[in-house]
Design brief:
With 433 residues, this protein is of the alpha+beta class. The protein has eleven helices and 17 strands. The longest helix is centred in the first third of the chain and has 26 residues. The protein starts with a helix and ends with a strand.
Length: 433
């Protein structure tokens, strides 16, 4: 019994040390402004929070300005206002089990919009250097969440790291951060399709919505000589690092196809290159395929990506597509794998959706889930794919009750039009948030 307890304590200590090491690596690099921006994301992931907010305090007036998530204009709090103001004034950690409609949490999670929903527990930590409070880190959790000592300890260490990052960043960090965020978002948006390809007999639509300033999700849809290339990718984590990994994969695949590589060869070579490039704890789940509009077939590799849905219009059946191989970048492949094939009959809908939509949670921490996604698609199967996409997003928003999405949401919807539909659908712009 004592040995089991000791093993459990050792595991907890090991996890905590690994988390602290990850934090040190992330925040210990050059660039105070970038480090301050990364703090909120690291804190959210490592402590299991739904949302993380970082406030900077004016040491002269005591006023707080929201630094992360980036808002334009940035919400502000008077000295002592809200949970963040009380935390800064007292210079001590606060745990509010029922935050209600606290104005600072509403600003952080919903940009000050009405109907932001009721947050769960909120942990507010002062960012202190010496005797001076430079800001506040707030972690918002799902309703009913309990707290163990290790989570609180890790949050306190993160707050200490964050205080140093704010000190290094200096008073101009807000403007610098906003510029960096906009540049990062612009770069990522530039890699997305500006228009979905016009394919005779098909209706295609794509959507990308990052959970933070930049996302680990991405998609691509482009007409190539061998067919319509479709790509949905999800790199582990959120923010700049995963976004760069996803863009690297997309860029390598496009180059491979320009050089005449087959889908199978491109998958193997890109996988092997990313296995060499990515850290051991990083990988990318991906669905990559070619749609042949003449044979109405889709040849694909599903590298750990799921769940993915093929709706059969003939009998109203939802077929869930399972992964055919492990995620991209996990390990090198010695042999070239063979792609799987699916067929699309008239009226069928192929729904490539990242897990951010399926795992959208409500106040009780229940997930939107596969059954609700399937129901929305079944009821909206005859709609244009652009409208079906909006119905899926609206249904998930209504289910979450105003709780912000914790993960990126990306969709590619492909419908084979019934023969009676005749004309090719208009070329519809892809949408990104």
């Amino acid at each position: 019994m004592e040995a089991a307890v000791q093993a459990s304590e050792d595991a907890v200590r090991k996890d905590l040390l690994e988390a602290l090491l990850a934090v040190t690596r992330t925040l210990g690099g050059p660039g105070g402004g970038a480090a301050a921006a990364e703090l909120a994301e690291v804190a959210r992931v490592q402590t299991g929070a739904h949302t993380a907010a970082l406030w900077r305090r004016d040491t002269q007036t005591g006023e707080l300005a929201l630094l992360v998530p980036a808002r334009d204009p940035a919400p502000r709090l008077a000295a002592g206002a809200g949970l963040a103001g009380r935390c800064a004034e007292g210079g001590r950690m606060l745990l509010e089990v029922d935050a209600g409609a606290a104005v600072d949490i509403v600003a952080a999670t919903a940009g000050g919009r009405e109907g932001a929903g009721r947050p769960g527990p909120v942990l507010s930590l002062p960012l202190v250097v010496g005797e001076v409070v430079l800001g506040v880190l707030q972690l918002v959790y799902a309703a009913g969440r309990g707290f163990d000592p290790n989570t609180v300890l890790l949050a306190q260490v993160l707050a200490a790291e964050g205080a140093l990052a704010l000190r290094e960043a200096g008073p101009g960090v807000a403007n610098t951060l906003h510029s960096e965020v906009e540049v990062a978002r612009a770069i990522q948006r530039s890699t997305l399709p500006t228009q979905m390809p016009a394919v005779p007999g098909y209706d295609l639509y794509g959507h990308f919505q990052p959970a933070t300033y930049a996302g680990g999700d991405m998609f691509d849809a482009v007409q190539l000589p061998m067919g319509v290339f479709l790509l949905l990718g999800d790199a582990t984590g959120h923010g700049f690092g995963p976004a760069l990994s996803a863009m690297e994969m997309q860029g390598m695949l496009r180059i491979a196809f320009r050089l005449g590589a087959s889908l199978d060869d491109a998958y193997r070579h890109v996988n092997n290159q990313l296995a060499e490039d990515l850290p051991d704890d990083r990988f990318i789940t991906a669905f990559m395929a070619f749609l042949d509009a003449r044979s109405h077939s889709v040849r694909y590799h599903c590298a750990g990506q799921g769940p993915l849905l093929l709706f059969h219009a003939g009998d109203g059946r939802c077929e869930w597509i399972e992964p055919t191989t492990f995620p991209v970048g996990v390990m090198e492949l010695a042999e070239t794998p063979r792609a799987a094939t699916l067929r699309m009959d008239a009226g069928d809908v192929l729904a490539l959706i990242s897990d951010g939509l399926y795992e959208r949670t409500d106040a009780a921490d229940a997930e939107f889930g596969q059954a609700r996604v399937a129901d929305v698609i079944r009821r909206g199967q005859h709609l244009p794919m652009a409208e079906l996409c909006q119905r899926l997003l609206a249904a998930a928003d209504a289910f979450a009750g105003g709780i912000a999405a914790a993960d990126d949401v990306t969709l590619i919807l492909v419908r084979r039009l019934p023969a009676a539909a005749g004309a090719t659908p208009e070329q519809i712009p892809a949408r990104d948030a």
